[in-house]
Amino acid sequence: MVEGSMTQGAGQGPEVERTATLRDFRVPAYVNEAGPYVHSVHPGDVAPPPEEAYPEGYTPTERDLPVINRGDTVQVTVDPETAAAPQATTGQGPLYVVGDVHGYLDQLVSALQEKGLLDAAGSWCAGTARLWFLGDFTDRGPDGIGVIDLVMRLSAEAAAAGGYCKALMGNHELLLLGAKRFGDTPVNSGAGTATFQAAWLLNGGQKTDMDRLQDHHLQWMSRLDAIEEVDGHLLVHSDTTAYLDYGRSIEEVNDTVRETITRNDADEVWDLFRKFTKRFSFRDEGGADAVRSLLDTYGGARIVHGHSPIPYLLGEVGSEDDEDDRDPVIEGPHVYADGLAIAMDGGVTMAGKLLVQQLPLDT
């Protein structure tokens, strides 16, 4: 199958021109390896998994995302129409999550309208509903700043209606912040000279986004949380255990990430970016234990993440030289890791589907 050739999912709006970065996915081989994870020896005292091994020269200046062909994960079909009603407390509306958007504003608006969250004019119409974005608003797609503007506006409109619209920090938010703040300043990548500007361009950075990026966008991104727990769901952007490096509670992780960004040290922000770029920790042997290490530390019964496109988790994308033009079809979230992990990146940058899903799932 040729990467970037999937048909769009239902309700994704008019097709837009795909960027030339769609086939530029690379990460070091170590990301595909699930390390051994140990269980805690004392109740309530969870030992974190051993630090995932970085090759001596690892740097995310390599193109992100490998081309894989694996058959060791199972797709769990979820019918959004039959999802169980959320167990919310009095006064709270249903809970929804949104996967990676990557600048595809039209698809986002269509998907939110399909779920009854936006009206025909694109305004919040969901009352007390609660909406969480899992990060990665920009890069690769045509209108990342438009996406951020929409999310910021919906945050105000939802709050006025008694609901909320909130967002998590993705690795591409860190990348855009770094490219704007540090540009071509060399950083300590462990593999020679690296810069945020080069990494941003290599991973789908759009000049139109940079040209329109303003101070209020930067301030908004820099204040985003990295991790939250809602209704028994631990929400994160990346399918990695790297969050454990930044604290033993949700509050500590979020504070540490914000403080790192505020200090404005290029090397520190780069280290944060490269750790949040790691992926596939919950896949393969040991993946369920990796999920449990996060759940035992931060709470929740399931983890919900974006970052790694479902077609890659499922092995439905072949090599770049594959002449098979059949398109992987993404109908909904992917449940894996002994049912403990829910993947929400439907691969919109690969002509997949931008996923908006009500939680909890009925599996």
The CATH architecture can be named as: 4-Layer Sandwich
Number of helices: 10
β-strand percent reads 5-15%
- State the separation between the terminal residues, measured CA to CA: 29 Å
Low-confidence stretches: 1-58, 66-90, 318-322
Using the coordinates shown, work out and report the CATH topology.
Purple Acid Phosphatase, chain A, domain 2
Counting structural domains, the number is 1
The biggest beta sheet reads: 5 strands, mixed
Instruction: Give the overall pLDDT as a whole number.
Output: 81
Biggest sheet: strand arrangement:
6-7-8-10-9
Overall structural class, as computed from helix and strand content, comes to: alpha/beta
Count of DSSP E strands? Answer: 11
By CATH, the superfamily comes out as Metallo-dependent phosphatases
Q: What general form does the structure show?
A: globular
In words, what does this structure look like?
The structure is a single chain. The chain is of the alpha/beta class. It has one domain: 4-Layer Sandwich (Purple Acid Phosphatase, chain A, domain 2). It has 10 helices and 11 strands. It has helices at 105-114, 144-160, 171-182, 196-202, 207-212, 215-222, 250-263, 266-277, 287-298, 310-313; strands at residues 95-98, 130-133, 164-167, 187-188, 193-194, 227-230, 233-236, 302-305, 334-336, 341-343, 356-359. Strands 6-7-8-10-9 form a 5-stranded mixed beta sheet. Strands 3-2-1-11 form a 4-stranded mixed beta sheet. Strand 9 and strand 10 (341-343) form a beta hairpin. The protein is globular and about 50 Å long. Mean pLDDT is 81; it is low at 1-58, 66-90 and 318-322. It comes from Streptomyces cahuitamycinicus. InterPro entries: Calcineurin-like_PHP, Metallo-depent_PP-like, Ser/Thr-sp_prot-phosphatase. Pfam families: Metallophos (PF00149).
